[in-house]
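Agenda item 2: 2-(butylsulfanyl)adenosine complex prediction
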Amino acid sequence: MSAEQQTKQLIETLTAELKQHNYNYYVLAQPVISDYDFDIKLKELAALEKEHPQFADPESPTQRVGGEITKEFKTVKHRWPMLSLGNTYNEQELLDFDQRIRKAIGDNFEYVCELKFDGLSMSMTYENGQLARAVTRGNGVEGDDVTTNVRTIHSVPKKLSHGSYPDMFEIRGEVFMHRKAFERLNNERIENGEMPYANPRNFASGTMKLQDSAEVARRPLDCFLYFLYTEKQVFKTHWDSLQAVKSWGFHVSEHNKLCKDIHEVLAFISYWEERRFDLSFDIDGIVIKVNSYAQQEELGFTAKVPRWAISYKYKAEQAETILESVVYNVGRTGAVTPVANLKPVLLAGTTVKRATLHNANEILRLDLHEGDSVYVEKGGEIIPKIISVNTAKRKADAKPVEYVTHCPVCGTQLERKEGEAAFYCPNDEGCPPQIVSKMQHFVGRKAMDIDGLGDETIETLYQRGFLKHISDIYDLHKHYDDLKQMERFGEKSIQNMLAGIEKSKQQPFEKVLFGLGIRYIGETVARKLVAHFKTVEKLQAATFEELTAVDEIGERIAHSLIEYFEGEKHREEIVKLQKQGLQFAAEEKEVVLQSDKLAGKTFIISGTFERSREELKEIIEQNGGKILSSISAKLNYLVAGDNMGPSKLEKATKLNIPIISDEELLGMI
Ligand code: IVH
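Presented output:
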């Protein structure tokens, strides 16, 4: 092959590879390489294209800001294009940036330094102080209208209450998820056999792509605002605009800093290099902006990025170490999670001994072999990840890591459901870690909240044969004398424990239902199910259609419930718990009538509203109205919010049922 042909091929390969990475990043929200590696490759391609323009693909990733538009949302054109920023990775590149600016506008200017939040950018338009529209960056020119999703973010004001803001303005910021929330929700996903997100950014962007804003609301997102656009210039500097938007009620980072020269900028960068891990959210660098708007205008833009701003990207901290073994943890639902044991290595100030591997796909993706030398990286997460393998160091006879076929604890053959990433141990009745963690979940604070019965006690009582099923907890009092004989079990602590167990019988049905640990039945779903079906008998008898007719109960949840109640052992356990005095029916809240303005009228509430549906329901009942469970000719009104299911709308329209807003409902009383 001639040298020219080789170059052509290299450009083609790089182009295809980068297109795939763009797709992974923007569409799937599951990137497989770091931003740093992406930028290196992009720069390599740009250099090759510059030298050999005849081989450049007109659709080359170097020619676009990136991003694909998802089909489901309305596409909206940005009034001001959403540009990206140039990246720098070292001091010299920053000094060059500073030189370019000084050449253009002289020495008399200031910089604003900001954290570079690692989330997804969002553009929000406010009209007369009200949030009118929120649009993702998309391809920079047009993006998705995700207003209903953004409305669920608490730190984004829906309505501005104070300050003298312009009638119309656009404000840009970064939507992100705090690390704590990410870890909590990701663990839930792993438990549920769902694909965990690689990092908080992917979780945030995956969340914004959801069509169901109620699910979005369940995933706590936050948003830092960092740029204001107005039709007429209101402020002279970026710094002043940041102070102003803060006073209008927007969330602006307290760490922004006004710097008088590039040396102060460099000091800011090194200050945050270490401290970034102490923040509650991820940042991947620092953004540096020229402060004066007049000077920004003077500097202008290149084809893709502003000349007055740039980002400095931190390199993710990596270390190389040896994979010693892969062990498998069995969770409450039987999901088996692989964990890598590593030769201890120092990384970002802590010694790392383990890394998560998530699931079997991850082992395949890494093509992990026994004894491999691996690169581990620490984002903000507590447990680091294996990023890649140093294959050059692999021994010729090293065997690939084979995912276990049988449960490492009870030996049962593992199963994988279609479309799911995790393998499961199906022996939920006999597999010790599943039994123990089910009981630990049951007594937990969010479920039965039993004081005096901690995780370790459960483990011990299980090993001694006192606990096998959840219902055994309520028989523990029968073993009082035996318990007293056990070491470390004082009389006082036994009494405490028994009192806690007795008290837990008063926990409402929704807590009991959540405590049973049925797959996909989290706290919110449990609450919804109890509010709808009221008793365990009705819930058990519900058909697939009846279950999925309940707002926010999808097919996956319905299947899981049906499968659970089909288990004879499960039904027996419920009967036993009922006999022991636990709550299996909704508490009938006494309705205090405030008026009879809605007497004889029936309602269904559907969609999302500013106030909760529970609240609306209460208002209807307090005024004599009745809530129905499904749309029929008997229904008088359908109260519709955002994102109501299309089938409900269709049915109500067919039956000529008036569809009213929550405001109209309030107007009726
Ligand atoms: S300013 C023209 N400020 O970084 C100005 N961007 O690489 C554009 N980002 O698309 C953005 N923190 O999603 C700005 N403090 C900050 C930022 C920030 C994070 C993101 C943003 C942007 C990307 C550019």
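Discussion summary: Residues 64-71 have pLDDT under 50 and may be disordered.
Owner for follow-up: CH.
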